[in-house]
Amino acid sequence: MSSWYDSWADRYADWPSGAADVPFYVGLAREAEGALVELAVGTGRVAIPVAQATGRRVIGIDSSPAMLAQARARAVEEGVELDLREGDIRELELEAPAALIYCPGRSLLHLPTWADRRRCFERVAASLRSDGRFAWNAFAFDHHVASALDGQHADTAVPHTNHYSVGDNRVDIALDDGGTGSLWWATKNEWLGLLDVAGLRVEALYGGFAGEPLDDDSREYVFVARRSGG
Ligand SMILES: C[S@@+](CC[C@H](N)C(=O)[O-])C[C@H]1O[C@@H](n2cnc3c(N)ncnc32)[C@H](O)[C@@H]1O
User: What is the CATH number of domain 4-140+185-227?
Assistant: First the structure.
């Protein structure tokens, strides 16, 4: 399956990533006793440090063959083992239940509809051990940020322009050299509703990767959930 990411996977490392997320996910992985799974693993930006810190092989799923190829090459360079699988996170299937499933880089926002996300959350719940955790982060929509960025060209290492569609809660990212990718933002209550329908419960909701409380100034949702009854 080819995707927008295939066209610029070799430049993904140049996109500002907010590396503060890496210690957060590494910390959760250290606490997990059992299989570790990254949804939308991309180039292994997070999975590689997780594998290095835990000495365990991380299962990484992604729909972009070119992103997976980057991850494969970087894992060899770093001397770690990743179990990389091409697939769609809405169709997650594991041979054995996982202790931790995590999805960094705001990747869940690539799923356009409630139905897509519900399917993904249900597959996550079905793939976790009874005490297993699910963690992810996503930006919190801020109309100040949107009005500052809308239509503006970003003259960065991967030059692009953002276009906001409030009616569809969507940001389109149009690269100068072609191709547009989209993110669909979600509110806190949508995320909580997804946990509810999937039979997961919130363990923590932070406003940042250092464990800051979520408040009116927070621009990131950082969720940690557990299987209910775990
Ligand atoms: C922003 S990148 C994040 C990569 C990595 N997790 C990180 O934090 O650097 C988003 C990734 O999501 C993947 N992706 C988007 N939709 C997907 C889907 N439905 N199933 C699997 N992967 C998907 C893309 O191919 C891309 O590699």
Answer: 3.40.50.150
